[in-house]
Amino acid sequence: MTVSAIVVWSVWVAFALLMAVLYIYRSTLTRDEEDQIFLDDSFDHEKAHQAAIAARVAKVEPLVRIARWLVVAMTVVVIAYYVRDVMLQLHLMQ
């Protein structure tokens, strides 16, 4: 395995781990989220708690999307690297 292949795979693994950590963090945030509507004023504390959870999830969501796109981009780079390598091996490229 060449140095460039090790670097490409290391970057891909780093992005994949980042994405996994963000997914796990988001799932721990949404664990206490409830799918119900509080119509009575006596549940204001529950409304506030659910709003706080939704606000934290909203802050994490852009990071999750960015991490997902970074993994997709690095996957394309890995595929392109190996397609180029095969083409070089078959002498289709110089």
Descriptive account of the structure:
The chain is mostly helical and 94 residues long. The protein has one domain. Helices cover 79% and strands 0% of the residues. The chain has 2 helices and no strands. The protein is rod-shaped. It starts with a helix and ends in a 5-residue tail after the last helix.
Show unreliable segments. none
Q: Which bin fits the share of residues in helices?
A: over 70%
Biggest β-sheet, characterized? none
How many domains, as an integer? 1
Choose one word for the global shape: rod-shaped
Task: Enumerate how many helices there are, as a single number.
Answer: 2
- Rg result: 22 Å
How does the helix and strand content classify structurally? mainly alpha
Intertermini distance = 20 Å
Query: In what range is the share of β-strand residues?
Result: under 5%
- Average pLDDT, rounded to a whole number, is 88
Secondary structure: elements and pairs:
Elements: H1 3-30, H2 44-89
Question: Which terms would index this structure?
Answer:
rod-shaped; 94 residues; mainly alpha
In short:
This protein is mainly α. The protein has helices at 3-30, 44-89. The protein has one domain.
